[in-house]
Amino acid sequence: MSGETSKIAEVANKISEDIFKWFRWEKNQRMDENFPCHKGEEHKNGAKRNCATHPVDVVFSYFDPYLNKTVLLNTDLKSYKSSSITPTNLRKAIKSLANTVDCAKSGTSWKAKYVNPGDNVDIRGMLFVFNNDNEYDKNFFSYFEDIKVDNLIQKKDTLVHLLEPKRIRYMFNVIKDMESLNANRVLPLDNYTYYYPELHLHKTNGDMAKYPATIELLTSPYMIISHGTYIEYDRTSQKEIIIGDSGYIIYYNRNGSTKEEFMYLFDTLSRFQMLGKNIKIRVAHDEPDSLLLTNYDNAIRAYLTAWGSDDFKGEQLRKIEIDLLTAVVPNYRPDDIGWR
Q: Using alpha carbons only, what angle is made at residue 85 by residues 329 and 173, rounded to the nearest 5 degrees?
């Protein structure tokens, strides 16, 4: 195993263990392998020779309850210092990944390795850009103001997701908080699921108790976890006793700079018929507004005014707990994984 291969396998394993297992993603055991390109002329990207192979760092998968399909994410792992996260490197990585996904979807070689026979799948790409010196403070998506995505992803049915440094830190903070809530006997790790409401055009499928966090949920302004009671076995009485109540945990990834955003959240919880339940809002944004809690209180007042100062609804809203998480810095190896 080469040094580069060893690094990729190590980071893939650590990412899976530290982050994605909490979101109920699976990792394919085949890592850092190439598969033949069957569109060599189309995918040579300006090179003199036709493209021969495409790289696969790791493939993650999960069940999407709305699509009723297994989503397969052909993932390109990048671990870099802040100075190496540049528009040029991003363009190269996205274009290469888009071609990889195009070949994976339209050919047979990739599917033979990573798709179980008979599975209904949706094959996509994911670019995972981790900043290993924790010094990257730019607006990642501002790079795309000067990048024409259509020139990088030419096939309309090719989907590439981007997980940038800030989003990765958010996910890391969420799972560290989940660990803490479990240690404090709030979140039972054997009895929680990610919440997907039944929508007019999108109905859920599959086992509700085992829903994962889809890539869309992880990149949304908030995600909701539904959990059961925390139960422990008491050796003295030889009975199971309830330590913590069932409820909902909301990981909130907006900065809380306006009361209107919280009013929208209250309206959403009311529509989902969650108000009055055990709800904890955990603000996981990396730069929460200094007036976030003030804006939250003002949102409660404004929302109640809109409802005619309903005392019962006021009790429901004030029952909700809100806390700001302390940021935790991911600690992966500082070695670079090259832009291939």
A: 20
